């Protein structure tokens, strides 16, 4: 029997619902990752523990999305997506305040869209 990826990611999704950003921390090498995996992407170790991020980090990449890729996001377009390197070391993609720039420090907030909690980063 295999575990589904949604099962692996459950702590992350449950964290969002409680207004928390959670990430996986590797007990073997200390690497942090936000996308749920069965093993550490750095060393392949399988001793991964979930921790809660402070939700603060630096913008690593920015994309302006003018045409939403799916109906679900059409109402939000145009919108800004960023990849943020959290202070804990993990990178996470989320929505962001328009005009946010690479290198800017940001804090994670949350908003609800079609019954899902999404992350939105705003400059500090
Ligand atoms: Zn590792």
Describe the structure.
The protein has 124 residues and is mainly β. It is 13% helix and 44% strand. The protein is built from three helices and eight strands. The protein has helices at residues 5-8, 10-17, 71-74; strands spanning 21-26, 32-33, 48-53, 56-65, 79-86, 91-96, 105-113, 116-123. A five-stranded mixed barrel has the order 4-5-6-8-7. A three-stranded antiparallel sheet has the order 2-1-3. A hairpin with a 2-residue loop joins β7 (105-113) and β8. The longest helix has 8 residues, at 10-17. The protein is globular and about 40 Å long. The relative contact order is 0.18. The model has no long low-confidence stretch (mean pLDDT 92). Bound molecules: zinc ion.
Task: Give a topology summary.
Elements: H1 5-8, H2 10-17, E1 21-26, E2 32-33, E3 48-53, E4 56-65, H3 71-74, E5 79-86, E6 91-96, E7 105-113, E8 116-123
Parallel strand pairs: 6-8
Antiparallel strand pairs: 1-2, 1-3, 4-5, 4-7, 5-6, 7-8
Bound molecules: zinc ion (ZN).
Zinc ion binds at residues 26, 28-29, 31, 40, 42-43, 45.
């Amino acid at each position: 029997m295999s575990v589904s990826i949604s099962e692996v990611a459950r702590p992350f999704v449950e964290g969002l619902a409680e207004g928390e950003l959670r990430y996986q921390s590797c007990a073997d090498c200390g690497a942090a990752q936000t996308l749920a995996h069965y093993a550490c992407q750095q060393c392949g170790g399988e001793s991964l523990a979930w921790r809660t991020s402070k939700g603060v980090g630096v913008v690593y990449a920015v994309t302006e999305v003018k045409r939403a890729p799916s109906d679900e996001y059409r109402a939000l377009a145009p919108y800004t997506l960023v990849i943020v390197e959290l202070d804990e070391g993990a990178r996470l993609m989320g929505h962001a305040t328009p005009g946010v720039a690479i290198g800017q420090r940001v804090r994670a907030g949350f908003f609800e869209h079609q019954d899902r909690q999404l992350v939105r980063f705003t400059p500090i």
